[in-house]
């Protein structure tokens, strides 16, 4: 199986590791998946929103999800 995070140098810095991890997450199209999930959930609610309202709502949801992920990562009882 090919490494999704690309080749790893023998001696890499933390910044290099962070870049590789970020690229791996980006290549998994996580952003598009989240947007599609939010669009489907909004359609299921049968609510019509203007573009600015939808943009604000999606932004707030992404912020909440991000905060939740951060809490889970910071929780020592959950292995990462």
Can you put this structure into words, describing what you see?
This protein is mainly alpha-helical and 80 residues long. Helices cover 66% and strands 0% of the residues. It has one domain. The protein contains 3 helices and no strands. The chain is elongated, with a radius of gyration of 17 Å.
Shape: elongated
User: Low-confidence stretches at least 5 residues in length (pLDDT < 50)?
Assistant: none
Total number of beta strands: 0
Strand content: under 5%
- Counted up, domains total 1
How big is the Rg?
17 Å
For the biggest sheet, the summary is:
none
Structural category: mainly alpha
User: How many alpha or pi helices?
Assistant: 3
Q: N- to C-terminal separation?
A: 22 Å
State the assembly state of the protein chains: single chain
Q: What does the average pLDDT come to? A: 85
Secondary-structure element order, N to C = HHH
Helix-residue proportion: 55-70%
Topology:
Layout: H1 14-27, H2 30-44, H3 51-74
Q: How would you concisely characterize the structure shown here?
A:
It contains three helices and no strands.
Features:
80 residues, mainly alpha, 3 helices, elongated
């Amino acid at each position: 199986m090919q490494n999704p995070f690309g080749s790893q140098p023998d001696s890499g810095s933390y910044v290099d590791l962070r870049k590789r991890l970020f690229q791996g997450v980006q290549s998994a199209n996580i952003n598009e998946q989240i947007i599609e999930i939010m669009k489907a959930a909004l359609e299921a609610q049968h609510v019509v929103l203007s573009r600015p309202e939808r943009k604000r709502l999606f932004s707030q949801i992404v912020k909440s999800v991000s905060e939740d992920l951060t809490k889970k990562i910071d929780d020592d009882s959950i292995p990462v």
